[in-house]
Structure formats: C-alpha cells, structure tokens
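Input for the complex:
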Amino acid sequence: MKTFLTTTALAMTLATAAAAEGELKIYHWFEYIPQELLDKFAAEYDVTVTMDTYDSNEALLAALKAGKLGEYDVAVPGDYMVKIMADEGMLDTFTPDELPNFGNIQDQWVDVEFDNGRHSTIPYQWGSTSFSVNTEMYDGPMDSLSLIFDAPDELKGKINVLDTAGETLTLASLYAGIPQCTSDREQLKALNALVQGAKPDWASFGSDVAKDVLVSGDAAAGMIWSGFSAKARAEGAPVQYVFPKEGMIVWMDNVALLKDAPNRDNALKFMNFLLEPENAAAVTNYAQYTAGVDGVAEFLDPEVANSPEANPPADVKGVFVQSCPEEVQVLYDAIWTNLKK
Amino acid sequence: MAGVAPGGSGSGSDIYRGNGPRLMLPVWVFIGIFLLLPVILMAVYSFLTKEFRGGVIWDFTLAAYDQFFLNRGLFGDEPATIEWTYIGIFWRSIWQAGLATVFCLLIGFPTAWYVATRPASTRSVWLFLITIPYWVNLLIRTVSMKFLLRDTGPLNEFLMWTGLISDPLSLINTNFAVQVGLFYSYLPFMVLPIYAAVERYDFSLSEAAADLYCNNWTTLRLVILPAVKPGIVAGCILVFVPSLGAFLAPDLLGGAKTFMIGSLIEEQFKGAAGNWPFGAAAAMILLTLVMVVLLIHARVQVREDR
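Predicted:
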C-alpha cells in the first residue's frame, strides 16, 4: 500500500512538473536551502524548480562569466560579490513594489553599501566566518586567531583552513592587524611570512569539507562559517565556535536577480516568497545562520535561535570582506599561489 | 592517412575503393569538434590579455607565458629571473604521476599475467572482478579511500587492535595517501592493456627459450617483455596521462595543501585569481609536454618496427 501511495505521489509530482506554469532556475551555494522549501514554492506557484550549486563566490562569478548568464534566474552572492557582479553588469533591477514583502527586510539591511536601497538583491542569510575547536582535543584558552596562525602544540598538524584566498587571507590580516586590500610592501611581506610560517601546522585546505573534517575528527580545529559549525555540533562534533578578540569576518548572502533571467516573474515570486518570515525562518532553521527579515523569531527552532554561533558577544569586531582593486588583488593572488606552490 | 581506404590494399571489397575520404568524414568531424576546436580555443586564449576577475580582452600578448617562466618579484619590479614556482608544481605532478605509473606497473603486470594464464573459462570472471569497483564514480571511490585512511578509519583501528601500533598512523593528507588514491584510480588502465598483450603471447616461445637454456629471468627479459611491450607502454601512458591532470586525489586525500597541475589550472578559472589566459597557457604547456612524450614514443616505436 505504501509503495502504491509513493508511486502515485511520484506520478502526480511528475504530472504536475510536466504541466507546471513555468520554470525557475536557481544557482545556489551547496547545502544552503532545504528541499522542502523548494517543493513548497514549486507547489504554491506551480513552477518547476531546478537548482545547481557552487562552493565559492568566485566559482559563481567564473561560471556566469563563462556563459551561464542568461541560464539562471537567481543566484546567491555574498556581500562583496554583489558589488562585483553589479559592476560587471550581471544584475537586473526591480522596484520595491514588485515585491509585496519588500517591507519585511530589516531596516539595517536595506541601505547596505553593496546594494544601497536594495534594487537588485534581497537579504538571504548573514553570519560570520571564524573557526571552531574540538574541545576534547584542546582545552586551553579559546579567544584568539593565534590558535590557527600560531598553533599550540595540541593543534599542530590538525588544522583545516578554508580553501579560498579571500577568507583565509582576511582572517590572517585580522590576526596580523593589517588592513584589507593594502598595497603597503612591508604589510604584505608580513602577511606572506605569517601564512608561510603557519602552513606547516595546517593539515588541509578545504571549504566544502570544513564541517566534515571536524565531525570525523580529521581536524581538531578548522576555519568555518558560523552555521556550519552549529551543524557540526548538531552532528555530534564536540566543537566550540570561537569569537576571536582580533575580530572575525561578517558576511551577508543575498538573493540576486540575474540579468537576462529567463523567468524574471518567477524569480521575483521566489524572492518575495523568501521574504515571508515563515520561509526565511525555514532557511535559518536549516542553515543555522541569521535571516535579514523581520518577524522570523516565532518560527525559529529554539536551539537555532539560541545557538552560541548565531549570538556573538556584543564586543566582537566583525568586518566585511572587501573587494580589492586589480593592482592590489594580484598581490594577494601571488601570496596565495606562493602559499600553495 | 585519410586517403587510404579501409580494405583498399587489394583485399577484395571494391565498394570502398576511392570512398576513403568520405568514409573518414565522421572521424574528422569528431576530431575537429571535440579535439582540435577546444585546443585551438585554448591556444588562442593563452595569448590574450587577462580581464580582471575572469574573462579576456582581445589584445594579443605573451604575458601568460611570461608569468609562467619569469619571476619579477612579488611587486613585479625586480630584474627577471627564472620562475621556479610553476615549474616546481609541474615537476611535482610529473613525479607523482610517474610514481603512480611505476606502482601500477609493479602490481598490474603480475595481475595481468595471472589473469591471462587462467583457463579461458575463468578469465572473464577475473576481468569482471577487476572492473567491478570501476562501476562506481571516481569521486565516490576517492572519498571512500579517505574514510579508510583517516586516523579513526578501519585501517588504523585494525592496526591498533593488532597492537602493531599504539597511536594512529597519519596517513590522510600525505603524499602517501595521494599515491594510494592514484594507484587505486588507474590500476585497471594498466592491467587491461597488458592482459590483452599477454593473452596474445605464444607460450611455446617460452618453452623454446627454456630449451635454449634461458633461465626464468632471461626468458622474461629477452622473450616475454619484448613481446608484451606494446601492452606495457599503452598501460603506462593510460595511467601516466590522467594522473598528471588528476586533482581529486591531491585535493581529497592530500588535503589540497599544494597545487597540482590540475588544481593550479582550476584556480585560474574558479578561484580569486580569475586569470583565464594564464590557466590556458598552463594547460597548453601541459599539453605540449604530453605531446612531446607521446611523439618520442611514436618515433621509437617506428624505428623498432622497421
């Protein structure tokens, strides 16, 4: 009987899919939206939803540049990447009245530096990038980026760092007290020396494995995004997310309306759908970051709402990653290549 | 090559005579679209000017090759010296691929020999067993290898259970793990061509050699190896070339701590660098290296056949 029901349900889904009003093509980060929410949208608006995933802002940009623009309706770039994509002419614009739920956006996230007044993007989730430590393998003080860049003996050879130059070099800069996008020779040399000196203590570079290495115990400490750390904890890893005194990276991911979107109307419906507090909360409950929408509190799981990762102490300093001008970016690229040569 | 009609050497089938070029057309179209066009595209891109954050500007330049071979310091204002960074990355990849080829040969040859000398009825079963693991996607096999090798994995657990070691061996994120991954990924590419060669080998030659007072070693060296050499060479090429561009094993098993050729090129297209011409140039240099090796092999082959 159960099989019969499943089969019928499947057949009905297929039939619905075939007869759907239209399509929506999403280009999204991996493991960042619950399938149930996509299904809910598909059912509510009678739209066939397809999603491809990427693992870094730069990979998103590369794919769009290599000819995928015009293939997707929405993507989810981080703050600095919104700016870059806007400068590249990859974003379409909308007016607030095209999104009935526009007013749900929290005030602090409307006039943002990367999309002032929100003409191309809406907030998706925001969080921080720092690192987590396995408390069974290390029980010393946990308040400084020195655990990654000047590792204590217990952590040496058991550290995973994110495999993206932007995040890893920005955290290194915070530790060294060097401003982002500097072109000062002495500062860049110091940054280069810092990461070169720290590398022998690092076991691996990996972004998509950042959670798994902590859960499996391959790494005793690892750079990680706040929500990913909460998920690692939920999966049984005895880890603590650290809010370093030197500061951490704060970011916001945004749903962006892409230029030449083949299904612009459905894209706007989807964005409006995500501004519904209940739906924004569904993403938060899944990804364990923080929504930028008013009224989500009542829909949040208590353990997500109260997770230590999502509630940084008031005095911790958070910085957005900056996009550097070309002549400076090549210097950071050279440091990164030099690190991995 | 295109002018020679199949079967046109007087073996009867006259309907093919003169139709050679036309019959070859599908092959040329295939090669043109899937081989020549991409390579030409890559060659052209390698001489273009990079656009910031990916993309190209249609101004021809040697900048990408300059970056590969010449070092002008971090700030680009020192006198040019040889850039060892990328040559080093290439050398490491070649070394890894060469080592993997040697290991595959050492294990693959006896394996192929064993299978080829079984009775005809059971050979297909052995071949079947060798190919079964390769029905699974390479990524999944590589990830599984990671599970096996990690500190808390079954291999370490077993060794600790036997009491041979008291602390887990650090296997994951080492060159050893990369070698294991490459070896496991490409072993059948070594076994199958050698198997094909050994299967065709006429074993009465070994008997003749024994009659002429060859010991086992001399028979292997003077009779068997020359006879199955084409299979060995084919196997070595089939293992070496994909190992050279491999990035799954270095990334997942080696911890992505150092660039391999594959990951260096990937970084130019997918990473913050976004330097497409440089990625294309690195790919062209790799292609040239492989071509040179294959051409030398073809030369030697022709000379020996003569």
